[in-house]
Design goal:
mainly alpha, single chain, elongated, 6 helices, 79% helix
């Protein structure tokens, strides 16, 4: 999303120019600078944007409804959020919808926590 792009752009701008200069003096190519300098220094921002993407994916609500009206290929537009909404306000089953929302929040937490664990293991933290 645009927010993710801004976060990564800010992380790239925060890298001091002296690091690029010393890499050029040492004879590093553009690919080596990207692989060995930029990506490791931007890795925390990449992890953050990964978590934001996981949470954003699980928050889809309006998009499937809007797109299903103009596309014949979409055969189901019930996302977990919309299902909880429809259960509450379409079926007047507020308790079940509240339970669905809590389960969705827990699933989001588990995915985010698992993503953090995997990225921390790969980073050696």
């Amino acid at each position: 999303t645009g927010y993710n792009m801004l976060i990564i752009f800010a992380a790239l701008q925060a890298i001091p120019g002296e690091i690029y200069e010393s890499a050029r003096i040492d004879g590093c190519s553009g690919w080596r600078v990207a692989l060995h300098i930029k990506i490791p220094l931007v890795a925390p921002a990449l992890v953050l944007t990964g978590i934001f993407s996981i949470i954003g994916t699980l928050q889809l609500f309006n998009e499937p409804q809007v797109l299903s009206a103009i596309s014949n290929n979409i055969n189901s537009s019930f996302t977990p959020n919309f299902y909880a909404y429809y259960t509450a306000f379409g079926n007047n089953n507020y308790y079940y919808a509240a339970a669905l929302s809590v389960v969705l929040a827990l699933v989001t937490f588990v995915f985010s926590f698992g993503f953090l664990r995997v990225t921390q293991r790969q980073a050696g933290v």
